[in-house]
Structures are given as structure tokens and as C-alpha cells.
Amino acid sequence: DSGVTQTPKHLITATGQRVTLRCSPRSGDLSVYWYQQSLDQGLQFLIQYYNGEERAKGNILERFSAQQFPDLHSELNLSSLELGDSALYFCASSVETAYNEQFFGPGTRLTVL
Amino acid sequence: QKEVEQDPGPLSVPEGAIVSLNCTYSNSAFQYFMWYRQYSRKGPELLMYTYSSGNKEDGRFTAQVDKSSKYISLFIRDSQPSDSATYLCAILISSGSARQLTFGSGTQLTVLP
């Protein structure tokens, strides 16, 4: 158990819908990261928040957005969902060390029908 | 060209074999080189990290980096069935509090008893 929690574990929805994925980082970790993992694209970095502010952005679609709240939990919002958005979404958190060990949550499996 | 290319596998070896997993990268700005292990239906977990050319050992695992050829490797000695997992190379760029990990596509390893 990494100490990072994600809800829900599974989500099934329809195209065009909007969903929210939630992440609680390990106690004391200020950084939260979101990743998408699919069979064809592998594990792709989406976005990083540090203490409530966006710090780094990867291959995140404009239909996707995230935020980090004052209690440091984070939400990833996915809208206008397409079939291709079906994937595992991971959240990770880290302390601020040079090598930045990231601790991953168990993931949310999103299925878009 | 992807920033990080990883030998795709899958790889199947008998128990006790030496395993070699390999990645190449293109961006000289990468600062830390990591190997994550991902068991089925779990989030990735950090196995090893290094930042300089050369070898780093941790028990049965050795991480090797050659910055001149932009090549990283992970060797597993005396492989065990419990090593069966997907191994992901990952490379870190950081700037201030911004952190971006770029992952290879992963190599699925099966160690047969």
C-alpha cells in the first residue's frame, strides 16, 4: 500500500459524459501527479500540482482539467468523453527530493461505452 | 521519435536466469534515470534510480546508464517468479518544483518456476 488513495476504482460511462476522479496523496506530500495508462500509449504524464498550483503539464487534452485543493487532495475532470479515453488513470504523490520518488495509487479504470 | 524507447518484450525466462531490460532516450536534459516495477492491476513502484553514468547495484538488481550513448539498462540476477511484472524505465526532468517523468512503454517479464 503506497498511501495514495484513488476513488472510484472503476467507472463505466457513455461517450459525451463528464466524470471526476479523485486522489488523496500520502500524508505530507505536496505534489500530486496524474497519469493515463493505455495499451497503445503506455503510461503518459498528464499534469502536476504542487501545493495547489499547477507546476508541469504533459500530454493533457483540453477536455481534461485538474485541480488541487487546500487539503491537498486532487481531482481530475474528464469531459466530452470519447471511446479512446478508456484507460487506467493513476495519481501519484511525492516529497520534494532531487530524484522525486513518486508513489502511485491503485488507479481508476475508466471505461467509455 | 518517442523521447524514451523501451524494448517491448514480452520476455519469458526460467527461474535463476539473468534478465536484461533496455531503454534508449533522446533528450540530453534528462536528469534522473529510474526503473519502476508494475505488478498486474497495481500502480507502478520505484525499484531503482540513478543520475550518473555507470552502474548502481541493489541486491539482485543493477541499473546501468551510459549517457554518451543515451542508453539505460536494468539487470536482474537470479531471477525469481516473484519478479514477474512489467518493468518501466522512466526519466526525470525537473525545474524548481516542476517534475516531469517520461516513461518507456514497459517490458512484461515472466519468470517461469
Plain-language structure description:
The complex is a heterodimer of chains A (113) and B (113). Chain A is mainly beta. Chain A is 0% helix and 54% strand. The radius of gyration of chain A is 13 Å and the shape is globular. The mean pLDDT of chain A is 94. By secondary structure, chain B is mainly beta. In chain B, the strands form 2 sheets. In chain B, strands 2, 4, 5, 9, 10 and 11 form a 6-stranded mixed sheet that branches. Chain B has a 5-stranded antiparallel sheet with strand order 1-3-8-7-6, with no helix packed on it. In chain B, a hairpin with a 6-residue loop joins β4 and β5. The mean pLDDT of chain B is 92. The interface between A and B is medium-sized, with 27 and 23 residues.
Coarse structural class of chain A = mainly beta
What order do the helices and strands of chain A follow? EEEEEEEEEEE
In round numbers, the mean pLDDT of chain A is 94
- Spatial shape of chain A: globular
Fraction in helix of chain B: under 10%
Strand content of chain B: over 45%
Query: What share of the residues of chain A does DSSP label as strand, in percent?
Result: over 45%
Number of contiguous helices of chain B: 0
Poorly predicted ranges of chain B: none
| Structural class computed from helices and strand pairing of chain B | mainly beta
Number of E-state strands of chain A: 11
Poorly predicted runs of chain A = none
Between the first and last Cα atoms of chain A, what is the distance in angstroms? 31 Å
* β-strand number of chain B: 11
Greatest interface and its residue counts?
Answer: A-B, 27 and 23 residues
Oligomer: heterodimer
Q: Please compute the radius of gyration of chain A using only Cα atoms.
A: 13 Å
Major β-sheet profile of chain A: 7 strands, mixed
Number of helices of chain A: 0
Radius of gyration of chain B: 14 Å
